[in-house]
């Protein structure tokens, strides 16, 4: 066998082995909310769509203390952080772990109640606990203020963004308008640097962004969607959108 060909075969074998041995990207999911059962839907989603390509760790609320996240140190090794938290006030040291990850410029994905993850409604955190009321604005460029009635049907349509986030719409290019599982969040106006991918409408009210990207001040990129109801995970759009969002987050 010619020497050059032999070298090429050895190089290919080494390269293939190196790729096989390369660690999978680490997706860490913060789950601490009781409204939408993401403690059940996100593990099922991960098993169905992420197991082959990613390593997934779940950081959940302590059953004895809903404002304490168990094994939060996993956030430090995350390549992508996914947040499904609702109105929790952590200890300062736990919140600092989340802050440290985000300010390092790493990517963040927010699901539904992540827009009000670390703040109470019209109240200050209790003694020994810390809040982050600016989390929505700083991390997602959002402006959550309330939601429309649960009885109002939410019709979601796809927008036509610029070329930058097209990976997020892969497999969703021909998505017809669909009905969201939960109520429509009031999030307008969004900050500059956002790119809206999906918009929701209810009768008699102005449209609201339902999914968008955001280029953060720290240089990191974020994706947020107010989808996240159990019925959204049963549909075709949200699972694909989250899979695409993780891949987009990891793009250099």
Question: Helices and strands in order, then pairings?
Answer:
Blueprint: H1 3-21, E1 26-32, H2 38-49, E2 55-62, E3 65-69, E4 80-85, H3 92-103, E5 108-111, H4 135-140, E6 146-147, E7 155-158, E8 178-179, E9 185-186, E10 194-201, E11 208-215, E12 221-225, H5 230-234, H6 237-250
Parallel strand pairs: 1-2, 1-4, 4-5, 5-12
Antiparallel strand pairs: 2-3, 6-9, 7-8, 7-10, 10-11, 11-12
In short:
The chain is of the alpha/beta class and 252 residues long. Helix content is 27%, strand content 24%.
Mean pLDDT: 91
Give the DSSP E fraction (strand runs of 2 or more residues). 15-25%
Radius of gyration: 20 Å
Overall structural class, as computed from helix and strand content, comes to alpha/beta
Give structural notes:
This protein has 252 residues and is of the alpha/beta class. It is 27% helix and 24% strand. It contains six helices and twelve strands. The protein has a ten-stranded mixed sheet with strand order 3-2-1-4-5-12-11-10-7-8, sandwiched between helices. A two-stranded antiparallel sheet has the order 6-9. Strand 2 and strand 3 (65-69) form a beta hairpin. The longest helix has 19 residues, at 3-21. Mean pLDDT is 91; it is low at 3-19.
